[in-house]
Amino acid sequence: MSQASRIEWTEATWNPTVGCTKISPGCKHCYAESMAKRLKAMGTPGYENGFKLTILPDRLAEPLTRKKPTVYFVNSMSDLFHKGVDDNYIAQVFDVIRRCPHHTFQVLTKRADRLAAFFRNRDVPTNAWLGVSVEDRKYGVPRIAALRLVDARIRFLSVEPLLEDVGELDLTDIHWVIVGGESGPKARPMKLDWVERIQQQCEEQGVQFFFKQWGGWGADGKRRSKKANGRLLAGRTWDDMPELSAHA
Q1: Which domains does the chain have, with CATH numbers?
Q2: pTM score
């Protein structure tokens, strides 16, 4: 079933697939992999295979049963555009999205090329926000150009975990940028100037900016508790988001 989410930029998660495989440095300490192992040990339905990619068609109808307008993060525990998910199943997911215009669906992928290929001859539902992960220059930044090829009402970047200074960004036709540091016992540090540079570019290019967390390290370069000013940047929180589809 759909789950309420503690992720700051969404309300609930919907996982019609679970499990994934690593393709870039951002995957190294995958929170979903660790969580899937715990859920398997707990005997949670859907996680019998742990973090091995698993298609769960019985979950497709979940958003259809919820009347209250909800912001869903699609596949928080997987990647919808994984090579193991066929186009027909992806199309079924987007058919459900299209049939739920009162909900907003946030779809995030590291497989940006497949995202662009899938929508080359398909329309994107207006209530689907499409995003790509941008953790570094080599793997992450090139995904932005692929995302720009897709005619979505909202295109967004999840710059999390931010692993280095990603340099000058072309944010043309990008509507929203989320930035966050890595959490967990093996978290890699994120530097203040990396975050500030992205925030400044968002401001200059008219893109909404959301600062999710420092994670396991603080702006001072020291390990720290997430509880203490974990979302403050320049003394404030940054919670900008695009207008929700149900109110567009």
Answers
A1: 3-247 (3.20.20)
A2: 0.94
